Amino acid sequence: MKIDIVSIFPDIFDVLDVSLMGKATASQLLDLSITNLRDHATGVHKSVDDTPYGGGAGMVMSPEVWGNALDPLVTPGSVLIVPTPAGALFTQETATELAQAEHLVFACGRYEGIDQRVVEHYSEDTTVMELSVGDYVLNGGEVAVLVMLEAIVRLMPGFMGNPESLSEESHESGLLEYPSFTKPRHWRGLDVPEVLLSGNHEAIRQWRHEQSLARTKAMRPDLLAD
Ligand code: JEK
């Protein structure tokens, strides 16, 4: 998979060298390129933003600069991802879909975001997704992209050889996961649940399902609404 990231803070993505992404790039599963948006600014001040039409606080990123940066990267086969607090929620399902793509381009905005015509323009010839990683406001798209990439890359066919646990994740989907335990059996007066030592695989399966249900009811009742 080819991944392009465009940002005015390209150094934020230096962390990708030391995490799982480093292994994915080293193993040639991933071809990652970071573009500094500032390199595509044309004025003497290399400015990338301007005041918002209609008034209001803050600045909006220029469609001209974004067009200069994205034109050499985006092709009809690309998926252009624009992180925004006003986007559709990025979920495990989104990650699964994007893990199948040939080419992802992430457009990281700052300030109050990017002139909306950039999304409109590239939507004419390519798939554009405006995505949010959650209902809180970040200062820009960069950290959202790190979150999305970590979720996407671990699902890529051939990554780190972990097909077992990945298929289990999709089985139990819709509920929170059951609690896990390891040795020692007794720790600070707390015991590992007896059923997990029983060797009764049907009883273990049933107990884990009950734990998942109870935990979902307590922590995420919204997941049980339907
Ligand atoms: C991309 C710029 C910052 C800050 C104005 C007014 C109410 C705020 C944009 N889950 C997520 N949260 N935040 C982002 C995200 C934030 C971004 C950019 C992604 C580019 N910013 C910013 C204030 C405002 N809004 C109405 C909300 C807009 C994100 C993701 N993904």
Oligomeric state, counting identical vs distinct chains? single chain
What is the CA-based Rg, rounded? 22 Å
User: What is the approximate shape?
Assistant: elongated
Query: How many DSSP H or I helices?
Result: 7
Helices and strands, in order, run as EHEEEHEHEHEHHEEH
Based on secondary structure, the structural category is alpha/beta
> Strands across the major sheet, in which order?
2-1-6-5-7
Stretches where pLDDT falls below 50 for ≥5 residues? none
- Main sheet record: 5 strands, parallel
Quick one: how many beta strands?
9
Helix coverage percent of residues?
25-40%
> What fraction of the residues are assigned to beta strands by DSSP?
15-25%
- Which ligands accompany this protein? ligand JEK
Mean pLDDT rating: 94
The N- to C-terminal Cα distance equals: 36 Å
